[in-house]
Amino acid sequence: MSANSISWSRTVSDIGVVARRNVIKITRVPEVLVFVLISPIMFVLLFAYVFGNSIDIEGVSYREFLIAGIFAQTVAFGATFTGAGIAEDMQKGIIDRFRSLPMSRAAVLAGRTISDVIYNVLSLAIMSATGLLVGWRIRSSVLEALGGFLLLLVFAYALSWVMAYVALHVPSVEVINNASFIVIFPLTFIANTFVPSDDLPGPLKAFAEWNPVSSVTQASRELFGNIPEGVPEPTVWPLEHPVVYTLIWAAVIVAVFAPLSVRRYARAADG
User: Fold this and answer.
1) pLDDT band for position 63 (cuts 50, 70, 90)
2) Which structural domain, as residue segments, surrounds residue 15?
3) Mean pLDDT, to the nearest integer, of 13-30?
4) Number of structural domains in the chain
5) pLDDT above 70 covers what percent of the chain?
6) Are 227 and 135 spatial neighbours (Cβ–Cβ below 8 Å)?
7) CA angle 186, 207, 39 (to 5 degrees)
8) C-alpha span between 195 and 202 (Å, rounded)
9) Distances (CA, A) of 168 to 17, 113, 164, 183
10) In Å, what is the CA distance from 213 to each residue of 108, 148, 209?
11) Separation between Cα atoms, residue 3 and residue 7, nearest integer Å
12) DSSP class of residue 198?
């Protein structure tokens, strides 16, 4: 067996160990999981019942329009668990212990980002059940619906690498939470998540049309079959090809921030 194959197999093994450690941690701190799952339920109920009767979108059931937007917002915020988890491990000295072990430099970060996908899977499952209760329905095929959920998870996974990079520079859970809120909150609201982008004023409309949160939301609506016939087609490329545009963004984010994060981690480990 070549040295490269040994190295890759060892890296995969290390990633699996770190991911398993983080999954076990979820089961040992159920309070965190409970609050994680309550948040999306609150968003669905608040927007469906408080704003749902006030917002009218011609030709579209607002509750069906809404759910994909809440999915996109929740998985975007879910990416902050990666940053918060890494910052917490740094504060407690766990990252220093990992650095002292003969393991792949990429394993700690990759294991963390992979394990945090579980948070988003659980959030999507809970939101889907809540959405069904308030009137949301999947009107496409099983494969298309699974594609919608998978696209949301891919986008969230990409964002988790951004948060990992930030956490390695600002090792404080409080700072990570505040910084992510300041960035992600406007990013998810200046989009087509809760209202059509056409309803936004000039500059905000242009930003929303090219915002990747809008494309993942649009793609989800299409894949879930929540855009009825007769609704005007988008006239900008990102929303005309939302799946491709979302995947391009996800690939670019991972290609940029994964190496930067690993390099930052290795530099800190080397002193």
Assistant:
1) confident
2) 3-269
3) 75
4) 1
5) 91
6) no
7) 30
8) 15
9) 21, 14, 6, 17
10) 27, 14, 9
11) 6
12) G
In this prediction, residue 222 carries a pLDDT of 95
C-alpha dist (Å) from residue 87 to 66, 135, 246: 33, 39, 28
d(CA 156, CA 145): 17
- How far, rounded to the nearest angstrom, does the alpha carbon of residue 205 sit from its chain's CA centroid? 23
Confidence of residue 100 (pLDDT cuts 50, 70, 90): confident
Nearest to 88 by CA among 184, 22, 20: 22
Instruction: Please say if the pLDDT value at position 31 is more than 70.
Output: no
d(CA 163, CA 169) in angstroms, rounded, equals: 10
CB 43 within 8 A of CB 74: yes
Which structure tokens are listed for 268? Answer: 């800190």
**In residues, how long is the chain?**
271
Instruction: Give kind and range of the element (H or E) at residue 263.
Output: helix 242-269
- The whole-model pTM stands at 0.89
Cα separations in angstroms, 141 against 23, 66, 223: 31, 20, 8
Q: In sequence order, what are the residues at sequence separation of 6 or more whose Cβ sits closer than 8 angstroms to the Cβ of residue 268?
A: 99, 168
pLDDT of residue 4: 46
Instruction: Flag whether pLDDT at 2 surpasses 70.
Output: no
Report how far residue 43's alpha carbon sits from residue 194's, in angstroms, rounded to the nearest whole number: 11
Paired tokens of 210: 């090219």
Q: Which residues of 30-49 are buried (b: 16+ CB within 10 A; e: fewer)?
A: eeeeeebbeebbebbeebbe
Q: What's the rounded Cα separation, in Å, for the pair 212 and 245?
A: 7
- C-alpha span between 147 and 141 (Å, rounded): 10
